[in-house]
Amino acid sequence: TQKLLSRVPCSTEEEMNAIIENAVSAQKKWREVPVQQRVRVLIKFHTLLVDKKDEIADVIVKENGKTKVDALGDVTRGIEVVEHSLAMPTLMMGDTVEQISNNMDTKSFRQPLGVVAGIAPFNFPAM
Fold it and tell me: How far out from the chain centre does Cα 63 lie?
């Protein structure tokens, strides 16, 4: 229809730097939160996604021009990603190998290291 739906402002470099600084600061605190408590936050997020699934799909239809069925599939896939993350206590488990060599054991630890950025593909915006 060539009808303008909305405008998205471009962020300034200063805004991006502030976002990064805030994320780094928050991550240092978040890292100290026990993993089970972090999972509880994800459970609440999962509940919101499920409860708002139709509304999220409607936004995808409006912004991406997808059919409602496709948009619902995209949201479902995003929900599945969160469901996978609910296994974080297990996913974060390290490994120990005893006697890998004479008088040598190895241990590995999985720890949150810092802030990362994710860019969702345009064709799967709910991921």
Answer: 21
Give, in degrees to the nearest 5, the angle at Cα 99 between 97 and 100: 65
Instruction: Specify the pLDDT at position 116.
Output: 81
Give residue 96's pLDDT. Answer: 92
- Tens digits of residue pLDDT in 10-21: 999 999 999 999
What residues have CB less than 8 Å from 104, skipping those under 6 apart?
none
Can you give the pLDDT at residue 92? 86
Global pTM exceeds 0.90: no
Please compute Rg for the chain using Cα positions. Answer: 20
Give the Cα-Cα-Cα angle 108, 35, 93 (nearest 5 degrees): 25
Asked if 20 and 115 touch (Cβ cutoff 8 Å), the reply is yes
Which element (helix H / strand E) includes 69? helix 68-85
Report the distance separating Cα 21 and Cα 15, nearest Å. Answer: 10
